[in-house]
Write a structure and sequence with these properties.
Length: about 260
């Protein structure tokens, strides 16, 4: 079995694959202060409750946008499973040319999500990841990663409005019944929600124009379920896109992963 781990700023997604089939998946809070031992205990308990024998795990692949947690999970992989994890980064074979000016700047999660989307739907395609930040990534018809856009996530936008004003309250981000709010909370919800939908649709439209062909649009991330229905163009919702991309990257680097 393969254990795929995506370390994000807010959550850590983990998936257990047998071949191409995702058997189990979990999501835990991303906490930089936790040690490898603490995460190891948590992961061991998740496997136990999922009736998974840790000895059945023969490979581990990790993408991370939280550098302090990467060595913790490397240590966890060696200590708990006796496996040297494959870390997605420079020098790893992805099968996708990166046309960024500095390829090393691209977040590993953006690359593996793009790989997962292109593998399933072909190109050109646009990948929208609704996470702590919302990222937009463009892939050509030939499977080249072009770049994209990064915007504050919808939750960050709402939190900034609360933190940077004297009288506005903290609100729950939900779709309001009307655009014209009759209370301060309803007005804030209208501005955040409908404003954000406008941002998403505009960026998608601009990237599609630059691609020069009608793209496939693939959405993922923690906020994708409530927000993706607002996307005007036809699209596909893939909640485990990054985990699927990690599996593909692992397969492309499969020759004898060394044991710890």
């Amino acid at each position: 079995m393969l254990l795929a781990i995506d370390i994000g700023n807010t959550t850590i997604a983990m998936g257990l694959f047998e071949g191409k089939r995702l058997l189990r998946n979990w999501s835990v809070r991303s906490e930089r202060e936790k040690t490898a031992d603490e995460y190891g205990i948590m992961l061991f308990e998740l496997l136990r409750f999922g009736t998974v024998d840790p000895a059945a795990i023969r490979g581990i692949v990790i993408s991370s946008v939280v550098p302090p947690l990467t060595p913790a999970f490397q240590a966890l992989s060696q200590k708990l499973f006796g496996i040297k994890a494959l870390i997605v980064g420079p020098g790893i074979r992805t099968g996708m040319p990166i046309l960024y000016e500095n390829p090393g700047e691209v977040g590993a999660d953006r690359v593996v999500a793009s790989i997962g989307a292109f593998e399933k739907y072909g190109g050109p395609c646009i990948i929208v990841d609704f996470g702590t930040a919302t990222t937009f990534d463009a892939v050509t018809a030939k499977g080249e990663y072009l770049g994209g856009a990064i915007a504050p996530g919808i939750q960050i936008s709402a939190e900034a409005l609360y933190l940077r004003t004297a009288k506005l309250p903290r609100i729950e981000v939900v779709k309001p019944k009307k655009a014209i709010g009759k209370t301060t909370v309803a007005s804030m919800q209208s501005g955040i929600y409908f404003g954000y939908i406008g941002l998403v649709n505009t960026i998608i439209a601009e990237i599609a124009t630059e691609l020069g062909a009608e793209p496939k649009i693939v959405v993922t991330g923690g906020f994708a379920a409530p927000l993706s229905p607002e996307i005007k163009r036809p699209h596909h919702h893939e909640p485990h896109l990054v985990l699927e991309g990690l599996r593909i990257v692992f397969e492309r680097n499969r020759e004898e992963r060394p044991a710890a």
